[in-house]
Hints:
Elements: E1 2-3, E2 10-15, H1 22-36, E3 40-45, H2 72-80, E4 84-92, E5 95-96, H3 98-106, H4 108-116, E6 129-135, H5 145-157, E7 161-168, H6 181-195
Parallel strand pairs: 2-3, 2-4, 4-6, 6-7
Antiparallel strand pairs: 1-3, 4-5
Helix pairs in contact: 1-6
Amino acid sequence: MTSRGAGAMKILGLLGSPRAGNSETLFNAFAKEAKKAGAQVQSIWLKSKNFAPCAACDGCSKTGECIVKDDFQQIASAIDKSDVLVLATPVHFGGPSAHMTTFFSRCQSLWVRKYVLEKKGRRKKAKRAGILIVTSYEKNPDYIKCVKQMSKYIFNSLDFTPLATFWFANLDKPRDASSQPKLLEKMRGFGKLVAQKRWKKLKW
């Protein structure tokens, strides 16, 4: 899904839900208002892509490029072109979804590129922002600590500044968020803030 606009802010959403549930619903509300504010928005449902976890083969150690050719290259290319990266995932056993975790592991080559080979990120940019949308049934903030920390490491490795975390609890069934207009309105408001670069109002 892509909304085009010449010279517009480019927002990429990576959707980690295996069932296209609450985290995707909230991202879509966010994206809808961001588009209205002039942003170009693309989303990738990770479950629909064919890519495996990192095999720890060290094939990227000399070039910073993964030698396994699959859909990860398509995802990395989309990240290249984005100004804002949104990670949207439910919490499973205190961590991100399996599909999001697989994506995280494949970022090893990009970590090598930046921190071992001392090469800059895939696209030079003064400032790019990382946003986390996370949903859970549990209401205890400790339940999302692992997801936040892992996401922060990924954003830094990909040359995005961790900007904001949007956490919504008490969501269990796939359509719970759809039936809560206040949550959707809140996400639309966040989408507008991000697209307008009113980032000081946001908090990681």
